[in-house]
Design goal:
The chain has 111 residues and is α+β, with helices and mostly antiparallel strands. Helix content is 52%, strand content 16%. A hairpin with a 4-residue loop joins strand 1 and strand 2.
Amino acid sequence: MAKGGFPGMGGANMQQLMKQAQKMQQDMQRMQQELQTREFTATVGGGVVRATAYGSKVIKSIEIDPACVDPDDVEMLQDLVLSAVNEAMRMAEEATNSEVSKLTGGMGLGF
């Protein structure tokens, strides 16, 4: 093996590879910061329940149309809220996975 390197890899190639890795790391950090504050809103039940989550997977708000509040059917309202929250979280996760895939070129590096 060549001194201080890998067989068949010149020092210039290794430097270029390190620069690319550093750029990918910087891009990944920037993307993660942007996603933390991006909002994802899901609406269910024909618009009667709306949940908004940040990319950090923290719920920002839940809005409920008073017309859908039926004291005799609280279970339906609970289901609608749960569905909206789960959908907003799924949207945030999907966006994160998509952005990571763009940065890594689909290499599946486990970020």
